[in-house]
Amino acid sequence: MRTFLPSILWVLLLHCCGQMTQAEVFTSISHLTDLIYTEKELVQSLREYIKAEESKLAAVKSWANKLDALTRVSTSDPEGYLGHPVNAYKLMKRLNTEWTELESLVLQNPSDGFISNISTHRQYFPDEEDATGAAKALMRLQDTYQLDSEAFARGKLPDSSHERAGGNLRYYENLLRKQLSELNQDYEPASEEPIQLGTYSRPKDHLPEREAYEALCRGEGLQMVRRSRLFCRYQDGNRNPHLLLKPIKEEDEWDSPNIVRYLDFLSNEEIEKIKELAKPKLARATVRDPKSGVLTTASYRVSKSAWLEGEEDPIIARVNQRIEDLTGLTVKTAELLQVANYGVGGQYEPHFDFSRKDEPDAFKRLGTGNRVATFLNYMSDVEAGGATVFPDFGAAIWPRKGTAVFWYNLFKSGEGDYRTRHAACPVLVGNKWVSNKWIHERGQEFRRPCGLTEVD
């Protein structure tokens, strides 16, 4: 049982936004970034409202001061005051027109613009699902990275000097203590997982490698005994004409199964263009149901993704072609380029990219066979967390912007390589962007011929 108090501050912030209509904001840092600018605009609107109220109040005060001076004179000698015809005229004029103008001034509502602005943006605010999701995300981060809750609230994170976090969070500590009991009463988990705001106990789950997976995410238990020598080289895709003059640097990440990393695979320009194209399309990431083959959301995958076609932009077509040139595998039967942005505590728990024998219909609708290989692009550095880990053999691959990793999911026989079960560790600090290409069997018959044994 782990005490959980200060780390719920994010949930408080989401909860305070109220009951809104837009869900799953927490699953993408990119969309949360939009809320930063939304809040800035609302603050500006609020300041304009305050300025208008102050202007209105100043005008009313001016009226009050003027009328106070007049009434002091008139009430000191009413008959003498009205004996002057001009004073009698001004009294009637004030009561006939000027007090009406003052009434109109008082009835003005400078808040209309602010209320209209906030109502327009309200549809994009987080909702209760976001508050619940963010709560679970913080609990997941504490559990995976074994964080001390008090230290977490002070911005102290492992292997990361996150100074601003402490300053940002300290402001909310007193507010949190005042409202914690109220939040506990209002909070109702959306799933069967036994999560509470006050304490957190690990739910029983389906992951036999849970401890090994989380240890790898923390950088523990990494197996360094691989091949006696790992190599780096220039890769020209077996003398592919597109790569002869500009081969790509290749490093061995693991020997068996063979996992390689390509350096400088994507340029900053390409990364920014891919993110620009993907951002309007980002939606809650899905997984393919192993029985029906239908895409559906899952609690163990916290991110948003978009799918980009080669025809959308020359850069997408160019990246697809580069993947084909480098791997020697056709991408004509591959899935579209998937772009993913991870949210608060974003992760993808251990999974296989390929379909197993008990899931014969997983990719039936595509008609391109199983996923023979995975090509994963890292489009951002991540300050802490976010590694790609392989619990079976104890490997962890850390995101490096512009690089890509590649591995085969299937042996040449077509049998699945169960060692490639992998996971995306929760993002502790930073904004993780990746894109991937799942390459399928169809069309690879002469590019990667079948082997003679199951493990060829």
Automatic annotation (TrEMBL):
The keyword Chloroplast does not apply. Pfam families: 2OG-FeII_Oxy_3, P4Ha_N. Residues 1-23 form the signal peptide. InterPro entries: Oxoglu/Fe-dep_dioxygenase_dom, P4H_N, P4HA-like, Pro_4_hyd_alph, Pro_4_hyd_alph_FE2OG_OXY, TPR-like_helical_dom_sf. GO terms for cellular component: endoplasmic reticulum lumen. PANTHER family: PROLYL 4-HYDROXYLASE ALPHA SUBUNIT, PROLYL 4-HYDROXYLASE SUBUNIT ALPHA-2. This is procollagen-proline 4-dioxygenase. It comes from Takifugu rubripes (Japanese pufferfish).
